[in-house]
Amino acid sequence: MDEALEIRPARPSDARAFLEHWTAIVAEERFVRSEEVQASTRAYRRRFRQRSDLATDLLAFEGGRLVGHVSVQRERHPVTRHVGSLAIAVASNARGRGIG
């Protein structure tokens, strides 16, 4: 890594950069079960604004550019509350450098 890597919780102002990042990951058609991004910038803004013990999103920036994210979510229903999901995605031009 040439520039300092900053890892921090997602902020509502990150929604547009996140959507661009996520759209590029999905477009690769290799790592994600979906073929298209259905959420809007507004939806991600709302998601990043909410604070909860059920979910968190961390973003990795290099030189001010979003290069990766980690999302951890726990199920809401009491019966499956012990079940969680982990998602990690790194931009194609930032892979292989220890960001993930």
Task: Label this structure with key terms.
four-stranded antiparallel β-sheet, 4 strands, 30% strand, 2 helices, globular, 100 residues, alpha+beta
Describe this structure in a few short sentences:
The protein is about 20% helix and about 30% strand.
Helicity, as a percent range: 10-25%
Query: In this structure, how is the largest beta sheet organized?
Result: 4 strands, antiparallel
Strand order of the largest sheet: 1-2-3-4
Secondary structure tally, helices: 2
**SSE topology string:** EHHEEE
- Number-wise, the strands total 4
Global Rg: 14 Å
Q: What fraction of the residues are assigned to beta strands by DSSP?
A: 25-35%
Average pLDDT taken over every residue: 90
Q: Note the overall shape.
A: globular
What does this structure look like?
- The chain is an alpha+beta fold and 100 residues long.
- Helices cover 22% and strands 30% of the residues.
- The chain has helices at 15-27, 41-49, and strands spanning 5-9, 55-62, 65-74, 84-90.
- Strands 1-2-3-4 form a 4-stranded antiparallel β-sheet, covered by helices on one side.
- Strand 2 (55-62) and strand 3 (65-74) form a beta hairpin.
- It is globular, with a radius of gyration of 14 Å.
- The two termini are 12 Å apart.
- The mean pLDDT is 90.
